[in-house]
């Protein structure tokens, strides 16, 4: 699914969006029928029942199954870090990629605990994106190619895709993308990220405002917002979400940064994220606002603000359980349990 030579690279992305499959209504009907027979009061598993239905709808399976879940982390570096908008130096991006490979990060432990596969995609870390206060982060060809690269995350017969990121400075570009897509002042969209104090957050807002001014007049097209104000890991996440849709793989999206990338697709088509669930509510303050714009309720709210796919990976434990519960439970008839009294 690399961009073809049919025209501008973004045209290939738009063509995929126009061709997105919809939910499998027959699979949903089958899950609902079976759900009603399982040995529990109707509706007693709350949102877990909805997760089983969502899995079936997008997998196109009458019985949902999660046997090959994958966490994909995309890592990128950002030119805007020259303005001191993170509590950590940008060298930490590469160092954390090495830490992921060595098994020392939080996400490695979550993957062990829940038996999730993990792949880390390093996106030209030695080539930071453009400084968004004065130039676009990426040109169109690089942005489209990075989206195409992100599509590779769906390979290998996976049946659940969990998306996360690593990139010092990326809560700044996420804020810029969110503001570019939904408007409002930069102060609405920035937060402490890795741990800025109030003065640091105010400076970060000023930098995002500068970026918005620099690109004003070019932000009507969501893909332009992505390439001008975003970064490689955001582009790759957007590509991965789109490829997952085409391959009928349900997706779990992590915190503020991953949600900002997803929001680009939502602005292109309000149904583009129907195959996605939002794993958690990040403590990054603007994540709640962004989810409200998308009209979505996250699965977990644990006060986490780590990134690297951690909140979505924790939610993958719930999604695995939802599939197992639905597939494995006995029906009233099978178990000889009496149904509801008349
Ligand atoms: C050691 C360490 C591990 C991380 N894992 C994820 N992030 C998270 O923090 C970064 C975004 O925050 P900001 O915009 O403030 O730089 C991203 O790399 C994100 O995934 C980390 C950050 C650090 C320091
Ligand atoms: O919610 C996130 O994605 C997040 C929050 C803080 C730092 N990095 C990522």
UniProtKB/TrEMBL annotation:
InterPro entries in alphabetical order: Nict_dMeBzImd_PRibTrfase (IPR003200), Nict_dMeBzImd_PRibTrfase_bact (IPR017846), Nict_dMeBzImd_PRibTrfase_N (IPR023195), Nict_dMeBzImd_PRibTrfase_sf (IPR036087)
Top EC group: transferase
EC assignment: 2.4.2.21
UniProt key word Membrane: no
A GO molecular-function annotation: nicotinate-nucleotide-dimethylbenzimidazole phosphoribosyltransferase activity
Pathway: Nucleoside biosynthesis; alpha-ribazole biosynthesis; alpha-ribazole from 5,6-dimethylbenzimidazole: step 1/2
GO biological process, one term: cobalamin biosynthetic process
Entry-linked Gene3D superfamilies: 1.10.1610.10, 3.40.50.10210
Protein name: Nicotinate-nucleotide--dimethylbenzimidazole phosphoribosyltransferase
Organism name: Kaistia hirudinis
Gene: cobT
């Amino acid at each position: 699914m690399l961009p073809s030579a049919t025209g501008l690279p973004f045209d290939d992305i738009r063509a995929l969006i126009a061709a997105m499959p919809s939910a499998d209504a027959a699979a949903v009907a089958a899950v609902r029928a079976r759900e009603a027979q399982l040995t529990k009061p109707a509706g007693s598993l709350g949102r877990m029942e909805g997760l089983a239905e969502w899995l079936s709808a997008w997998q196109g399976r009458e019985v949902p199954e999660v046997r090959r879940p994958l966490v994909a982390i995309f890592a990128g570096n950002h030119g805007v870090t020259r303005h001191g908008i993170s509590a950590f130096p940008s060298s930490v991006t590469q160092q954390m990629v090495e830490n992921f490979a060595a098994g020392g990060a939080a996400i490695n432990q979550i993957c062990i605990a829940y038996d999730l596969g993990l792949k880390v995609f390093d996106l030209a870390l030695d080539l930071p994106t453009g400084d968004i206060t004065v130039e676009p982060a990426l040109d169109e060809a690089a942005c489209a190619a990075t989206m195409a690269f992100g599509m590779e995350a769906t390979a290998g017969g996976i049946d659940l895709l969990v998306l996360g990121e690593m990139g010092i400075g990326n809560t700044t570009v996420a804020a810029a993308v969110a503001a570019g897509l939904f408007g409002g002042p930069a102060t609405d969209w920035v937060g402490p990220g890795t741990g800025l104090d109030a003065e640091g957050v105010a400076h970060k807002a000023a930098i995002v405002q500068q970026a918005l001014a620099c690109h004003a007049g070019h932000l009507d097209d969501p893909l332009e917002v992505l390439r001008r104000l975003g970064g490689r890991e955001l582009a790759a996440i957007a590509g991965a979400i789109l490829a997952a849709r085409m391959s009928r793989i349900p997706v779990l999206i992590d915190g503020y940064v991953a949600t900002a990338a997803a929001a680009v697709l939502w602005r292109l088509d309000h149904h583009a994220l129907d195959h996605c669930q939002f794993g958690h509510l990040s403590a990054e303050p603007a994540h709640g606002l962004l989810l409200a714009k998308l009209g979505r309720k996250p699965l977990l709210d644990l006060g986490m603000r780590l990134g690297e796919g951690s909140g979505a990976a924790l939610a993958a434990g719930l999604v695995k359980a939802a599939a197992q519960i639905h597939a494995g439970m006995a029906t009233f008839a099978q178990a000889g349990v009496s149904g509801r009294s008349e």
